[in-house]
Structures are given as structure tokens and as C-alpha cells.
Amino acid sequence: MTLDTQRKIESHSLQSKFLNEERNIKVFVPPNYDPAVPLPIVYCHDGLEFFTHGRVATIANQLMLDGEIPPFLIAGIAVNLNKRRDDYALDGARHGAYQRFVIEECLPMLDGLYNVDDHQRLMAGISLGAVASLGFMLAYPQYFHTLILFSGAYFPDVQAYIRETSELSRLYAYMVVGDEETQAKTPSGGVFNFYQYNEDMRDILFDKGAQVEYRVGHGNHIWGFWQKELPDALRWLGKNIK
């Protein structure tokens, strides 16, 4: 049998009744995908950037071919940049609607297109997308409890919110922050100490009983840094797929 080593990405579109707009979703299909075998799926916020800037499909494909990680699907949900904070922030005006879009529209659509393991849905996000991932874990623990969190925008109000939650022993998280993120600039023009925010959130999650692997890498609050960190994050994910 000839092995299929080519990277495979499929594109889908979905008209959301909750967001009242169309969203695109890219799905990485692992090498030698067998529709008869259920696979885990990783949902990514800022999803198209995970594919273009993060090169997640290329990296995952090679790691799978090398036998370093098991096969899984990766779904990148396109962001609406004009509504990013409204969708991703825990207090965002559309946060609840965005969650319903993912849970009630994205999940059923992709479950119908691919053989998804019902017990293996995972999530990844960068900056405010990491906050959104925590929000999904809190609201829908039956679906999401294993997360990749890059340079989370854990502002004081987010930290306070997580402190008020009950114990989080069900959470498995891989956290990464850059050593140059002490004065990180964001596209909105703000300058924030994401390094300290992530140190603080790590301690909060530990105190709540979460299983956390925490890494400080060399870099700033940009995709060039997160792309370099993706291989190790995916290796961790592969070890935590049950």
C-alpha cells in the first residue's frame, strides 16, 4: 500500500444563526485518514492564522509521518477581526453567541463530515484566543478540558474570574509565554506584561488543581514565536490524547 504523505487541508463554510454571519473553517486531515476510525479533533481560535502564520498543518503532518504524534484532526475557525474581542473575551458582547456557534453549529457540522471521537475534543488559542479556550472549558467541560494556551491575555479581570471558579482538576493545559513579553505590543496599540499575566495564571490554575505544563520560550507576542513553539505543543498534545 502506498502511503499518502501529502498534507491535506479541506475548507468549509458555515452560515451562523448565532453570529449572523458566515465563517470559514479549515480542517487538517491527517495522513492516511481512515473514515472508519474515530479521531480526536483540535479546535483552534484565530484558526486560519494557525494554518498560515503557525503552519500547524505542515508541522502536524510531518510529526505524524515521523511517528512522533498520533493522528488527529485540526479545525481552524476563522476570526472576525472586527469582533474578535466581542467573541473571545469572557465579558465580550458576543461571547455567549460565539460559544453557541462553536458548540451548536461547528461541532455538529464537523461531526457529520469526519469520524470524530466524541470523547476527544481539544482546543488551542493564542492571546485572547487562549482566554476563549478557558471559557469553553468552563462552560462546556463535557467537550473541552485539554487545552494549548499560547501567551494568554489573562488580564486582572480574567484572573479574578478564574479564581472564583471551583476546582479545575479536570483541566490539562500546555501554557507557553515568551521571555520578551514583558512589554508586548498588541495590534490595538496597547502594551501589556503578558509574561506576568501568564505567570499569575499558571499559579491560579495550579491552585485550582489543574494539570499544567508551563514553558517560557525565547520570543515576543507574535506568530514567529508561537510557530516555533507549536511542535513541542503538538507533541504534548499527542501524549495527552487518551
From TrEMBL:
Ribosomal protein listed as a keyword: no
Gene3D superfamilies per the UniProt record, alphabetical: alpha/beta hydrolase (3.40.50.1820)
Keyword Cytoplasm among record annotations: no
One of the record's GO molecular function terms: hydrolase activity
Keywords of the record: Hydrolase
PANTHER family linked: ENTEROCHELIN ESTERASE-RELATED, FERRI-BACILLIBACTIN ESTERASE BESA
Protein name: Alpha/beta hydrolase
Source organism of the structure: Alicyclobacillus fodiniaquatilis
